[in-house]
UniProtKB/TrEMBL annotation:
SMART domains: FBOX
Domain F-box: 1-43
Lineage: Eukaryota, Viridiplantae, Streptophyta, Embryophyta, Tracheophyta
Name this protein carries in UniProt: F-box domain-containing protein
Residue stretches of biased makeup (Gly residues): 492-502
Pfam families per UniProt: F-box, FBA_1
Region named Disordered: 492-519
SUPFAM superfamilies, per the entry: F-box domain, Tricorn protease domain 2
InterPro entries documented for this protein: F-box-assoc_dom_typ1 (IPR006527), F-box-assoc_interact_dom (IPR017451), F-box-like_dom_sf (IPR036047), F-box_dom (IPR001810), SCF_F-box_component (IPR050796)
């Protein structure tokens, strides 16, 4: 294996499922560094084989379950690695990550088992008089900034008329790890039984009430996670009918709308994104294939594209044949009685996606494979993300421990800066090399210096905390011993038998003192 070219090993590994890759991390340091690198994670996510074969159904019910889409035979229980008070469901999946609607909210990669607990978010807006509120969440990925974002919309309605009065919108960035308020959502959220918000290609899509037609959910508002602007997408004119439940979904990369009435369910698919004329009626299904008033959620196509997997009213799964217009129920062992299903692709996406961590993994990969300047420029994403590293005075900015993660004192920040500058000097980099932005080797050395300084700073912080904790334990034990002597033997210097200042000529007291010590 060491004689195989780097490109061949990388090409083989990126075709494997996540479970195998997690095991192969233990084969060698070079494999571990490669699998953990941002470049490999992105290649693995975009691999065509992954999108068709290595997909699972993530089932939310009384617990969390995983079902292999290829087999569809058994539901396997997934034990969340985090604590939660309650779970209201699972939001949409994006690059293998799901938003768990728990208290608190959690972003969770069910395959790598990494998770991030979101900080609490409260509504800042003062509630209007005689109003009630409801909160909705959406989750998606912004490819421009390489950031996962959670959108929170809190709206207020009148208690009696239920007319929309006001709303507040906040967005959480995984990169900044904080909530911030943005332009408020100027539309009323619909009262629908089905799904009414989905994510597709960096855009959150939400069904809203048509302002010209009260309580008619006939408009899709597309919220771009990068520009944070809303754009309307019109539905087909055929489905603007009162008394119909309209829900929104994504079917294998295409936006789709499900219209449910008492007698039938019609599914429309937008073949060309944003073009109203591209809406196509995919299927019409009615009883007895489904029960009346069933809310149907399309999940995925079969491998040959002739069938569609449907989740009917969160109670059963059906394969619907598009050519023969027949339906076959899928029996999956271990499914809960009521469940919510979401298609989830396997991924190695890391939720700790700080830039320093990504750069460090790229450095380790390049070092492990001994790549030259040209290979390094082509095999990693360093060129697009290390411009600021070329100036030594900006080193402090790239230390995650210098901006308040470990502490906020200026002494600690200065100490980190000193460590990094000394590490840079030991690398033998002069001013000209530091200012030169064209050499990947220079950037590699500089980032290695930052990584080493960060590791030293972390070790010092851990040692200091450990020493402080040990000192506290020793002090507590000393106090406990002191209290034991005071309460049990009458205190230091007392005349009681066995005391340290007692009368040693008293043979009876001396004997009992020795006997007590032997016990």
């Amino acid at each position: 294996m060491p004689n195989l070219p780097f490109e061949l090993i990388e090409d083989i590994l990126r075709r494997l499922p996540v479970k195998s890759l997690k095991r192969f991390r233990a084969v060698a340091k070079t494999w571990c560094c490669l699998i953990d690198s941002e470049n490999f994670i992105n290649l693995h996510l975009r691999q065509p084989l992954i999108s068709t074969s290595h997909r699972n159904l993530i089932i939310g019910g009384l617990g969390v379950y995983s079902v292999d889409l290829e087999a569809l035979d058994k539901a396997h229980v997934i034990k969340p690695p985090f604590y939660y008070k309650s779970v209201d469901g699972i939001s949409n999946s994006c690059n293998g990550i799901v938003l768990v609607m728990s208290d608190p909210l959690v972003l969770w990669n069910t395959f790598s088992r990494e998770y991030v607990t979101l900080p609490n978010c409260s509504t800042e807006m003062q509630a209007p008089f005689e109003s009630y509120s409801k909160v909705a969440y959406g989750f998606g990925y912004d490819s421009e900034s390489d950031d996962y974002k959670v959108v929170r919309v809190a709206e207020f309605r009148h208690k009696i008329t239920h007319i929309w009065m006001a709303s507040e919108t906040k967005i959480y960035s995984l990169r900044s790890k904080s909530w911030r308020r943005i332009g408020d959502f100027p539309y009323a959220l619909p009262f629908l039984r089905g799904n009414w918000r989905v994510h597709l290609n960096g855009v959150m899509h939400t069904l809203v009430e048509d302002p010209e037609e009260f309580e008619a959910a006939a408009v899709i508002m597309a919220f771009n996670l990068r520009t944070e602007k809303h754009t309307p997408i019109m539905l087909p004119s055929e489905i603007r009918i009162r008394g119909v439940d309209v829900s929104l979904d994504v079917l294998d990369g295409c936006l789709c709308v499900v219209c449910t009435s008492r007698h039938r369910v019609v599914i429309w698919v937008m073949k060309e994104y944003g073009v109203r004329k591209s809406w196509m009626k995919l299927l019409t299904i009615s009883p007895p294939l489904i029960e009346r008033n069933d809310i149907v959620k399309p999940l995925t196509y079969s491998r040959d594209g002739t069938k569609v997997l449907l989740n009917c009213d969160d109670k059963r799964l059906l394969w619907y044949d598009l050519a023969n217009h027949t339906a076959e129920e899928v029996v999956v062992e271990g499914l809960p009685f009521v469940f919510y299903a979401e298609v989830c692709v396997e991924s190695l996406v890391k939720l700790d996606n700080s830039l320093v961590y990504q750069l460090l993994t790229d450095v380790l990969v390049a070092r492990s494979w001994q790549l030259g300047d040209e290979e390094l420029a082509g095999k990693s994403s360093l060129n697009s993300s290390v411009n600021l590293l070329c100036l030594p005075q900006r080193l402090l900015f790239w230390s995650p421990f210098a901006v308040g993660t470990v502490g906020n004192s200026s002494c600690k920040e200065n100490w980190n800066l000193v460590i990094m500058l000394r590490s840079v000097q030991e690398k033998g980099l002069n001013d000209q090399e530091l200012d030169d932005a064209s050499s990947p080797s220079t950037r590699l050395c500089l980032m290695a210096a930052v990584a080493e300084a960060t590791a030293v700073s972390m070790a010092l912080a851990v040692m200091a905390e450990a020493m402080e904790a040990a000192a506290v334990v020793v002090m507590e034990k000393a106090v406990a011993v002191d209290m034991a002597y005071r309460e049990g033997d009458g205190g230091y210097g007392s005349g009681n038998r066995g005391g340290y200042g007692g009368d040693c000529s008293n043979s009876e007291g001396d004997f009992r003192s020795k006997k007590r010590r032997r016990r």
